[in-house]
Every structure is written in structure tokens, then in C-alpha cells.
Amino acid sequence: MDFGYALSGLLIGSIVGMTGVGGGSLMTPLLVIVFGIPPAIAVGTDLLYAAITKAGGAWVHGASGHVDWKVARLLASGSIPAAVLSIFVLKHLSVDRHALASVVSTTLGIALMLTSVSLVFRGGIGRFVRIAEDRTGIATVILGTVLGFLVTFSSVGAGALGTVALFYLYPRLSATGVVGTDIAHAVPLTAIAGLGYAAMGEVDFHLLGSLLLGSLPGIYIGSHIGSRIPERMLRGALASMLILIGGKLVF
Q1: Chain centroid to CA 251
Q2: Which residues contact 230 (CB under 8 A, 6 or more apart)?
Q3: Which H or E run includes 41?
């Protein structure tokens, strides 16, 4: 099993390195469907997994000047309170474990399908998104709030949905700037949400270590392979996987 977890980390890390998205979108359902990990534990473990792996990426992007810290702060001003409130709701929700697992699974499935749509129709959606300059800050805080709830309940959204939305909100920001800013914002969000799950006993630290053992070299390998594969092909393949997995969890 340890080898399987490390191999999964290697696979997902490579995909994230190639596409920039897919950490929570793929890792959590893989843990639930393939390894039979309870959804709540899969989400909690994946959140801390994402925080640790993205911390390194945030450091590199920040050192290279690829992080817009003002935008990251706007996102965090919405996402962090939303994450804290979500953890409070989860902790004090008067339902049994089975019901909680069902809520998390359904939320995860819906998030996956939304992510797949955003990846496929990124260009088309962008033509209809026009936000006035003075409202961009408010829209960014709202985006952060939505991501805070979504990521805490399902571990999905910080990468795929966050990156896509930032492309629309800040068209003048370079692609590397969008990716770096989104990664930097995801670190405190996933860390706080993951620690909340850990406080509820919903993190498997042995599993976390095994995943990180494979994901760290996977991200390095994927970043080199990604530069040689057409983005449209990767985005289409990833979207197909997300909608299939999401449909399975919801229905």
C-alpha cells in the first residue's frame, strides 16, 4: 500500500507539474475510489498534502517575482474566514459519519464537474466576462470566499477554478503570474483547512508521508514534460477525467 500511495503521489505530482492543476481534483477521488479511504480523511490528508507541496512552489514563484501579493491577500481575505467557518460547521454538524462522508463526496463530485467545464470552455467563458476595474477587488474577495468553502469541503478548487478565474479577473497578469499567485494563495488556505481536519482527527499522517514521497519528484518530472505537450491536449484529457470521476461520486 505504501508503494501504491507513493506511486499515486508521483502520478498526481507529474500531472500537476504538466498542467498546473489537478492536485485536489485528482488526488482526493483517487484515494476514495481506488484505495477506499473515507472521504473526510481523504480530503483532510489531501489538504495538508497540497499545503506542503505548494509551499515549495510558492517560494520559487515568489523569489522569481511571479506572485502578485496584493491579489493573493485579496483572495485570502475571503478564503481564510470561509475556511474557518467551514471547519466550524463540519465540526459541529449534527450528523453521523456516514452522512458527513456523503456530504463531502457529493460536494467533491459537483466541484470536479465544475472544474472540468471551466477547463474545457475557458476561452469561451472569458469572452463573456467583463468586470469593471473598480469592482475587480470585490470580485477577487468573493472568489476567495467561494474557494474557501469549496476547498475546505472537498479539497478541490484552489488550483483549477482559482487559476481559471484569475485569468478572467486579471487579463493583464502573465500566465506565470496567475499560476504563482494562485499557488501562493493556496498555501495558507489549504494549511488552515488541513489543520482543521487534523484537529477533528481526519488526517492520516502515514498516508500523507507516503504521498509526499512520490509527489515531490513527480512535480519536478512533470514540469519538464509539460513544456513539450500541447496545453489544449492536456486540458482536454484532464477535463475528461474530472467529469468522469465527478459523475461517479455524485451519481
Answers
A1: 22
A2: none
A3: helix 39-63
Task: Return the closest-CA partner of residue 167 out of 118, 209, 134, 214.
Answer: 118
Cell of 97: 459519519
Q: What is the DSSP-derived secondary structure letter of residue 244?
A: H
Q: Enter the C-alpha cell of residue 11.
A: 502520478
Q: How far apart are CA 156 and CA 84, in angstroms?
A: 16
Each residue of 101-119: pLDDT tens digit? 677 767 777 877 777 776 6
Residues of the chain with pLDDT under 70: 1, 17, 19-20, 22, 94-98, 100-101, 105, 118-134, 157, 223-224, 226-228, 231, 234-235, 238
Query: b/e for 169-200, b at 16 or more Cβ within 10 A?
Result: bbeebeeebbbbbbbbbbbbbbbbbbbbbbee
Q: Judge whether 42 and 28 are in contact, CB under 8 Å.
A: yes
79, three cell numbers: 478564503
Q: What secondary structure, in 3-state letters, does 145-208 show?
A: HHHHHHHHHHCCCCCHHHHHHHHHHCCCCCHHHHHHHHHHHHHHHHHHHHHHHHHCCCCCHHHH
What pTM did the predictor assign?
A: 0.81
pLDDT 10s digits, 83-100: 999 899 888 876 565 676
CB 12 within 8 Å of CB 215: yes
